[in-house]
Amino acid sequence: MAKYIKYGISATIMFGIVTYGSYKYHQIRSFEEEYYKNSNRKRQFLFNIHQNLAILYDKSVDSYEDLSKINQYRKILLSYAQGFVLETAIGTSRNLKFYPPGVKVLGIDWSSNMLEAAMQKSVNHISYSYKIDDTENLTFKDNVFDTVVDTFGLEYYVNPDKALKEMKRVCKKDGLILILASGQSLYQGLNFFLNYKTPYTVCNYGFFPNRNWEEFIKEEDFEILKKERKINGTVYMYVLRNKK
């Protein structure tokens, strides 16, 4: 009897594994059809997600950022900001309180709902304003800003390489580009997990957790003044000088 019970349990476990695997396979295929294979809908697909996330975004990330010291990394990075600052993909303006006194910040986002949430926050130590704009197609002239900031925005772009080029274009020669981004780990086991969950995170939260930012930064030929990787290498911090 015990033998049959053992076989029954094994069969049940195997059935569960196969069923879950089939579910994940169809989820990935559905994601590919919705996102990868329909290029005309990529941007609208992500835009709709970002609009819907705005209301609960801060509550959804507050605890994680406190526990993982993300706010500490924001403060360190933004201490380098100077002059006229463009913050791309500003979202709900989580960086506002970390800017050093004296800077002037213009925050942009393509999501009007995100900017509406950002406008509910206020500080007195800096001058700041907001504008709807798209980092992949910025409406500014060349060489406008002393500093360009992007914190956890790159992983939300359809074309992050294009966004980086635009950030470089509008930043003055020898200006600073400050980046915090989440992406590939230093460990292959963790990268396997990040790749595995990408369809879910894109479909539900509109971001890609598995991009290798070292490769993207290298492509743009920035001068790297500071580079750190935190949390098993999944958080990238860059202070870059804009070579032109």
Automatic annotation (TrEMBL):
One of its GO terms (biological process) is methylation. InterPro entries: Methyltransf_11, Methyltransf_Superfamily, SAM-dependent_MTases_sf. Residues 87-179 form the Methyltransferase type domain. It holds the Pfam family Methyltransf_11. GO terms for molecular function: S-adenosylmethionine-dependent methyltransferase activity. Gene3D superfamilies: Vaccinia Virus protein VP39. Keywords: Methyltransferase, Transferase, Ubiquinone. It comes from the Eukaryota. Transmembrane segments: none annotated. PANTHER family: METHYLTRANSFERASE, N6-ADENOSINE-METHYLTRANSFERASE TMT1A. This is Ubiquinone/menaquinone biosynthesis methyltransferase family protein.
